[in-house]
Design a protein that fits this description.
Number of strands: 20
Shape: globular
Oligomer: single chain
Distance between the termini: 43 Å
Low-confidence stretches: 1-22, 392-402, 634-650
Length: 802
């Protein structure tokens, strides 16, 4: 944004020069009366309730422009939000609206603002740990505690849990909740004595141990916010400097605020300054991250202006959804509580009307007999929408539908659980010819299909005995080696022949029947890879894949011995495999294969980044610890998401969880797998250490099932409110009484739940057409003319220029 382009210069030494940014004139949007009331707010605290699609971002941008028009400089306005994507969008739109380049970001995430604060006024920001890295540090310390080498003594009944990933995650959540509520180890010890909880006493000791290990070298996100708060609370000069710098504050997605962030705002603007917060209590879906919706619900009383509660305004015109879509989302919202808000205010917030220019949409609920049928039906739906035919072919005499075709990037499939649902749906959609865009941040690095073989091979180079027979088969069939099933079977047969001959020589001429058969072929293949001499003398067509695998393992092993660097070892494997050349060629060719190649290349780049960061922070620690850390990263690292979701930059149907869909929208949205037991998922989180009991005002009773149900309903509401034109909600109803059943949420959409329907038998895809044509060519009941015509079409489809 520093310049519109590079302009040639007459100077020979400097062929290019930067010119000032030239912003295209931005048309001033036409605001409705409620939006204009927010913009015209004279100052002081203000709560704005904004439902999905009601133009809150536009309102925020116009309010910032209004403050600048009143005499403030852009640098005196602080805008805070909760995701980097949202901050980037706000920054671009504010700069465009003001028609100028800003000297610094006009919008921050809370964590980015805290990092800047600590960097300017503190002793500098230590290395910031990602979520997965922080979890690995905790697991390392717990492993020491379990071995009796740490300083924390855990209760005996918890000792078996210390080495589990689940316990480390619960402990990480507990530490976050404590710091969000300004509680330290000593506070936790007091609570442990009062509540009679030995696990909290041990957790307090662990808190001290963890802080000592990280002190001065590394910092996690919760501690970053806590450190910024300490600066503001203990150094009046810092607080005065920040207050003097910013004269107006705007906060987006305020329902996602936690108590620590609320305290920061109270320090900066709690004395009646110009503070506008925007949020929606019905979209508060991050309780598991410490968000507290009461920060929004109680805002008027906690940020009073001139001795009275802060005023509340609502935005009530949807520019996203038409009347039908709004009716469905309003039906779900009616079951959501919002304690503390006046009834009149709540009704005004939820009484959203469609803008006059918004076209009506469609809502459909579909139930299928199996998960496979559901996946096939979703694939068929997406293909038809892409071709402009959302309904199956019209009956005879009825004209074709004239619906506009949707680009792949204008559609999304949302699920409750990424781990359970995304791999299944991804395979089904790709098999049906639907390009899929799954952000890298949906999967941990080690689980990415493009990365897993590299890590598995690295493990074998470090310790060949660690490769199981199944691991060896996985590597042989991976793109790194490329041995097909037929070649692997030939290798197994050849090795079994040699093994039988050797066994016969050992047993003599009269073998015992019980000893007549050698080891399974898969075991023999694994032994041959571990001991390559077993491949000597065998036919090249059977052993070429195994020899390639042995060569790659040897190359990685040599790099580890010479350089003691996992990054260099991975690079040797990557280059020698020939995969970079093949992926680059596929990426240049474009199409669906090109998009898949781009995604695989992005994943491999992310792997090398992760390995490089690990070796910089922990040099000479060996491959074993690196692989343990990557395997332990159950949550994906930031920075792998690729292009912004929901935009034309992503050339594929976006497949993601409902949590990650918040703030996004598409023309067509499929909410899949709305099953009882999965959505709502009423399993308690964090129940062992009781992290969820630390409320804003002290220790609270465990969350009841009713509270968990509210959280799940809010998440469902977020999912169904992402659609601009078409919403499809799907579930499975098994014929077996013990099988899956549709969720109660389906009925809350205001539609009858239909009986299970079969999956479409004819997909609008080349693969499906080819299958039907092949069946026709061998169908004994088909006429000769039909068989000939089918064979002719198959030949044309197979032609190189097709």
């Amino acid at each position: 944004m520093l310049a519109c382009g590079l302009v040639s210069s007459a100077a020979a030494v400097v062929p290019y020069r930067l010119v000032p940014a030239c912003h295209e004139p931005v048309a001033v949007p036409v605001l409705d009366t409620r939006q204009q009331a927010v913009v015209d707010h004279p100052g002081g605290p203000l709560l704005v309730l904004a439902g999905p699609g009601t133009g809150k971002t536009t309102t925020l941008v116009e309010a910032v422009a209004d403050r600048v028009g009143r005499g403030l400089s852009p640098e005196q306005v602080l805008v805070l939000t909760f995701s980097r994507k949202a901050a980037d969008e706000l920054r671009e739109r504010i700069a465009g609206r003001l028609g100028r380049t800003l000297s610094e970001p006009a919008a921050y995430t809370f964590h980015a603002f805290c990092s800047a604060l600590v960097g300017v006024y503190g002793d500098g920001v230590p290395r910031l740990l990602s979520g997965p890295e922080r979890l690995v540090r905790i697991r390392d310390l717990l492993a020491g505690d379990a071995a009796g080498q740490g300083s924390t003594r855990w209760p005996a009944d918890l000792l078996p849990c210390l080495t589990t990933r689940g316990f480390a995650e619960e402990l990480a959540d507990l530490l976050d909740r404590l710091r969000e509520r300004a509680l330290g180890p000593d506070d936790l010890r007091v609570l442990a004595r009062r509540e009679g909880r030995d696990d909290w006493r041990a957790a307090a000791d662990f808190f001290d141990e963890y802080s000592q290990v990280l002190r001065g070298r590394e910092i996690d996100y919760a501690e970053l916010v806590a450190e910024a708060l300490r600066l503001l609370e203990t150094d009046l000069a810092v607080l005065a400097a920040v207050r003097d710098r910013y004269r107006a504050y705007f906060v987006d997605e305020y329902q996602d605020t936690d108590p620590a962030q609320e305290r920061m705002l109270q320090l900066l603007a709690g004395d009646g300054r110009d503070l506008v917060v925007v949020g929606d209590p019905d979209q508060s879906i991050y309780r598991f991250r410490g968000a507290d919706v009461s920060c929004l619900l109680d805002f008027p009383s906690r940020f009073p202006g001139r001795g009275a509660p802060a005023p509340v305004l609502t935005l009530g015109v949807s520019r996203r959804a038409g009347p039908t879509l709004l009716a469905a989302s309003r039906s779900v919202a009616q079951g959501l509580p919002a304690p503390g808000l006046p009834v009149v205010t709540l009704r005004g917030h939820r009484a959203i009307e469609a803008a006059s220019e918004t076209t009506d949409g469609t809502v459909r609920v579909a139930v299928f007999g199996t998960i496979a049928d559901e996946a096939v039906a979703i694939a068929d739906l997406l293909r038809r929408a892409h071709l402009g035919q959302l309904e199956p072919g019209p009956p005879a005499g009825r004209p074709e539908m004239t619906q506009p075709a949707l680009a792949w990037s204008q559609m999304a499939v949302l699920v409750r659980s990424g781990v359970r649902s995304i791999p299944v749906l991804r395979r089904a959609l790709v098999a049906a010819g639907v390009p899929v865009a799954v952000a890298g941040d949906e999967l941990p690095i080690a689980r990415d299909p493009a990365v897993a073989p590299l890590l598995l091979l690295l493990r074998g180079a470090d310790d060949i005995a660690s490769l199981s027979p199944a691991n060896v088969l996985e590597l042989l069939g991976s793109p790194l080696v490329g041995a097909g099933p037929a070649q692997i079977r030939r290798l197994g047969r050849a090795l079994r022949t040699v093994e039988r001959a050797a066994a016969a020589d050992r047993r003599g001429a009269d073998p015992q029947p019980a000893q007549a058969y050698p080891a399974p072929a898969v075991d023999l293949i694994a032994q041959a890879v571990r001991q390559p001499l077993r491949l000597a003398g065998l036919a090249a067509d059977a052993t070429s894949g195994a020899r390639r695998l042995v060569t790659l393992i040897d190359a990685a092993r040599d790099a580890l011995r010479q350089h003691r660097s996992a990054e260099l070892a991975l690079w040797e494997v990557w280059v020698r495999s020939g995969r970079p050349t093949r992926l680059a060629a596929a990426a240049r060719a474009g199409g669906q294969a090109g998009r898949a190649a781009d995604r695989d290349l992005d994943a491999v780049v992310a792997l090398f980044d992760a390995v490089g960061r690990f070796e910089e922070s922990r040099p000479q620690t060996g491959v074993g610890l690196l692989l343990t850390e990557l395997d332990a990263q159950e949550i994906p690292p930031a920075g792998r998401a690729g292009p912004p979701a929901g935009t034309l930059a992503v050339e594929g149907v976006r497949l993601l969880t409902a949590h990650r869909a918040k703030g996004l929208e598409w023309d067509l949205v499929v909410v899949a797998g709305v099953q009882d037991g999965e959505w709502p998922d009423l399993r308690r989180r964090g129940s062992l250490l009781g992290a969820d009991r630390f409320g804003r005002d002290g220790i609270e009773p465990p969350l009841p099932a009713a509270a968990l149900l509210v959280d799940e309903r809010r998440l469902f509401y977020v999912a169904v409110s992402r659609a601009r034109r078409h919403l499809f909600v799907t579930a499975v109803q098994s014929a077996d009484d013990a099988g899956p059943r549709p969720s109660r949420f389906l009925e809350e959409l205001g539609f009858d739940v239909p009986a299970p329907a079969p999956a479409p038998d004819r997909l609008l895809s080349v693969r499906s057409l080819a299958g039907r044509l092949r069946r026709a060519t061998v169908d004994p009941d088909a006429t000769e003319g039909l068989r000939t015509a089918a064979a002719d079409v198959l030949a044309r489809l197979a032609a190189p220029d097709h």
